[in-house]
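note to self — DONT lose this again. spent like an hour looking for the file last time. sequence + predicted structure for the chain T wanted, 228 res
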Amino acid sequence: MSTKALVVLAEGAEEMEAVITVDVLRRAGISVTIAGLLGKEASRCSDTQMSTKALVVLAEGAEEMEAVITVDVLRRAGRPDNPFLRQFTSALHHLVPDIGLSEVTQEYDVIALPGGLGGSNALAAHPRVGQLLKQQQESNKLIAAICAAPIALKSHGIGLGKRITSHPSKAEELKADYDYSEDRVVIDGQLITSRGPGTAFEFALAIVEKLLGSNKVKEISAPMVLKE
C-alpha cells in the first residue's frame, strides 16, 4: 500500500511552501492529495504589490518548483509575473485542489499545512481542519505545519507542550503553549514544524525521512541538486 499525504490548501496560502512540499513528496513516491478548504476551486495564494515588470516564459513540461520559486521571489522584490501565468493552474499564484476538504474520508500517513498568514488564519478557524488533525493525532500519525500554519495547531489544540517552530512573526503567539525553538525544522514525535519559504525543502525532506527513511531522502535530493 502506498504512503499517502494530505496537503490542506486555503486562500492566502504561501505558494512556495505548498508547491515545494507537494512536489518533493511526490518525487519520493508518496501519493499526495491536495484538499481545498473552499472546495475544488482554484485557491489564490499570498499576494504582493508590484510595479517593475518581468516576463517568465513557460513551456509544457517546465519544472514547476523552478517556475514557482522564481516567480514568487521576483514578486517579493516587487516584480510581477506575466499575467498569463495567473492562469497556469498547477501552480503560480493560483493552486487547484484535487478535492474539497469536505470530500476527505480516508486516512493519511501525514497531513501537511502550508503557511501564509491568510491561509493559516483560515486553517485555524475551520472546524473540519481541527477534526482531521485531532483524528490524525489520536491515530499517532504524522502532522506537519510550516511558517504561520502552527497557529492552526494551537487553535485546534494539537501537540500542546511539544517542541515546535514557526515563522518568526508567530513566535510570541505560540510560546505559552509550546516549547518554542528557532531551529529551521523541528521534529517532536509525530509533529514536524518549520519556519518559512526558505526552509520548505528541509521541511518536505523531513516528512520524507520520517515516512520513508534517510535513503529515500538521498535518492531524491541528488537530482534536485540540493545543497548538502
